[in-house]
Specification:
Blueprint: E1 3-12, H1 16-34, E2 36-43, H2 47-53, H3 61-65, E3 70-75, H4 83-97, E4 102-108, E5 124-130, E6 140-143, E7 151-154, H5 160-176, E8 180-185, H6 193-205, E9 212-217, H7 218-227, E10 234-237, H8 239-252, E11 260-264, E12 272-276, H9 293-305, H10 309-324, H11 338-348
Parallel strand pairs: 1-2, 1-3, 3-12, 5-10, 8-9, 8-10
Antiparallel strand pairs: 4-5, 4-11, 6-7, 11-12
Helix pairs in contact: 1-9, 1-10, 1-11, 5-6, 7-8, 9-10, 10-11
The protein binds 1,4-dihydronicotinamide adenine dinucleotide and magnesium ion.
GO molecular function: D-malate dehydrogenase (decarboxylating) (NAD+) activity; lyase activity; magnesium ion binding; NAD binding
EC number: 1.1.1.83
Family: Belongs to the isocitrate and isopropylmalate dehydrogenases family.
């Protein structure tokens, strides 16, 4: 019997609703070609729902998805609602309740594209971002609101378990790739959590003699990311540093519209979530201008996770092929609409 995968689909807002159908069309074709089944469970969990019902998702939303095999997300966010509401009302609860403590973000200089920095001719790296603790924490508060003596306190949480497991994932990945791992730190300025991060990472590193570990201060790392992105293979970083670095790398490699992201529960106790790095792009939404590559590549990471590795490789080579032939959407300097680009990818599948 064919493998059957149940996938919760949250297209979300803005261009999420344009790039999601584009990716699903291609994945459906791949499932027919490769002989597996995809069952899509569409969820209208978006900003419209929030404006109507006062919540991004139902109270038991997490429970509804818990028997699924994966979650496929477009993007959420609209100018009418504060961004912390859309983020903390949907994505952050999913990441935390499903223990998706790894956020894996590949960056590659795709064929046919030029890096935004002169002299850079290859980029192929993975950012491993800690995804459930660190700087994005609920611990803290605000008092004396609006008064001159107002105070805001935001605590960063780093646990040995949390740092150990993200470091282990990154060392394993580096060992399978070129054996080089860079750890993002700021132990000169942030004097409690970052030396702790460094110690735990180095401790895990002692178990991986085949991997060369380099600790780099985040400010210098950002500059090196712009000037010498080819010098990285795997980068492990805290929640905030990893978030910023992955946007930086994807911008250097061409466009934020191509970058994918996997929120993984490596133990597979819960579904993992796959999404593009970009947001809902209200500035171009509804105009057919969105680049669907980030969503397609996220779909490839999802297929990989589900064990459909041949189909995953095929969609990547299909969009690479279209880009290599000089066809792309406007963000990459081309002239194709979302649909035209998707048609071109679709036609290459199963050929
Ligand atoms: P954004 O990624 O939506 O857009 C940044 C810029 O990149 C815009 O100029 C946009 O037109 C362009 N862009 C993004 N994706 C593109 C694509 N696929 N093709 C072509 N151009 C693309 O980030 P921004 O503007 O900071 O946020 C907009 C909304 O998205 C906000 O409400 C924000 O909270 C939300 N957001 C949601 C995320 C998620 O759902 N995971 C992630 C990031 C932002
Ligand atoms: Mg981000």
């Amino acid at each position: 019997m064919a493998n059957r995968h149940i996938i919760d689909v949250i297209a979300g807002d803005g261009i999420g609703r344009e790039v999601m159908p584009a990716a699903i069309r291609c994945l459906d074709k791949l499932s027919a070609v490769h002989g597996f089944e995809l069952e899509w469970r569409e969820r209208d969990w978006n900003s419209e729902r929030y404006l109507r019902d006062g919540a991004m998702m139902p109270k038991n939303g997490i429970e509804q998805m818990s028997d699924g095999d994966a979650i496929f997300l477009g993007a959420v966010g609209t100018p009418e609602i504060p961004d912390d509401v859309t983020l903390w009302g949907l994505l952050i609860p999913i990441r935390r309740d499903f223990m998706q403590y790894i956020n894996l973000r590949p960056t590659k200089l795709l064929p046919g594209l030029e890096a935004r920095v002169r002299g850079v001719d290859s980029i192929d790296l993975m950012v491993v971002r800690e995804n459930v603790e660190g700087e994005y924490s609920e611990v803290g508060g605000r008092v004396y609101r609006g008064r001159p003596e107002e105070i805001a306190i935001q605590e960063a949480i780093f646990t040995r378990t949390g740092v150990d497991r993200v470091a282990r994932f990154a060392f394993d990945l580096a060992a399978r790739r070129t054996g080089r791992l860079v750890s993002a730190t700021k132990s000169n300025g942030i004097i409690h959590s970052m030396p702790f991060w460094d110690e735990v990472v180095a401790g895990v590193g002692a178990e991986y003699p085949q991997v060369e570990l380099e600790s780099v201060l985040i400010d210098a790392l950002a500059a090196r990311g712009v000037l010498h992105p080819s010098s990285f293979d795997v980068v492990v970083a805290s929640n905030l540093f990893g978030d910023i670095l992955s946007d930086l790398f994807s911008a250097v490699a061409g466009s934020i519209g191509i970058a994918p992201s996997a929120n993984l529960n490596p133990e597979r106790e819960f579904p993992s979530l796959f999404e593009p790095v970009h947001g809902s792009a209200p500035d171009i939404a509804g105009k057919g201008l969105a680049n669907p590559v980030g969503q397609m590549w996220a779909g490839a990471m999802m297929l990989d996770h589900l064990g459909e590795t041949a189909a995953a490789a095929e969609i990547i080579s299909a969009f690479e092929g279209v880009l290599a032939s000089g066809n792309s959407t406007r963000d990459l300097g081309g002239s194709l609409s979302t649909d035209d680009f998707t048609d071109a990818v679709f036609d290459r599948l199963g050929a």
